[in-house]
What does this fold into?
Amino acid sequence: MTPSPIITAQGLAKSFTVKKQRVDAVHPLDLEVQRGELLAFLGPNGAGKSTTLRMLTTLLPPTAGTASVVGFDVARDPAEVRRRIGYIGQGNSAGHNQRVRDELISQGAFYGLGRAETARRADELIESLDLTAIATRGVMALSGGQKRRLDIALGLIHSPELLFLDEPSTGLDPQSRANLWRHIIDLRETHGTTIFVTTHYLEEADQFAERVMVMDHGRVIADDSAAELKTQLAGDVITLGFAGAAPAIPESTRVDDRTVTLTVDHGDRLLPGLIRDLDDAGTPVLSAAIRQHTLDDVFLTLTGRSLRDEVATTTAPENEEVPA
It folds into this structure.
């Protein structure tokens, strides 16, 4: 049997009114996410990615189109969608005056779980997310990394099939970010949870996501694995150095008399054979290096902007205007 997708969208769109002018925040979007995928959703501020996320999680009604999430229509059955998904927003969701375990127990009650089941799930999540040492501590006393792990626990208390994470590691130090992602990956491997994540940290998408979508100006402009996007849109740069005069190599660029560069697809696969061919031709390679482009290079190629620059200059949320 062919597995059914966990998210489908057809013509999903959202418009706002800004100073009496219509603004199309998300143009008609077709989307399909398979069960068990880890998808990274990228885009500059104002691109429409958070608006898309809010529509898929029933927090914002679409202007046009349809979407089915975990088998239910987001417009007709929002309560059924919410029962089956976890959503971790950009802000901390726990009450500051609550203790960690008590907050999890309250969250379970909100979802209608029985006392025994809620207690079991709370203790299970406390252990799996390394919250045991702080289970009786007040939320206000937690570090940023601890609060984000608690946010994830709150989003998982009802065992959702699908977890939405909106900028989960923003503002965390590198160690806390690494620990958070370790927990996310463990969650997926252990429970098969589908992960839909937005992030400004491109190295996270590159390292952990098997699929990357890039949105700009309300449209999805790329959708593939990180490796394929880097190959298709940027390529790899090979630099070859020679003891004497550099030979003429098709499609190469001469850096100086003894050095040339080539931009190729899958440079790691091509380099060994290229070195052998040059050696057989009597022009042995003295040095060789490969620069593999990053997702930020891809992002710059696609949008004309660096996502790193976007993060450095602004952290403003996307459109919050009155819907059209």
Notes: The CA atoms of residues 88 and 311 lie 20 Å apart. The first strand starts at residue 5 and ends at 18. The radius of gyration is 24 Å.
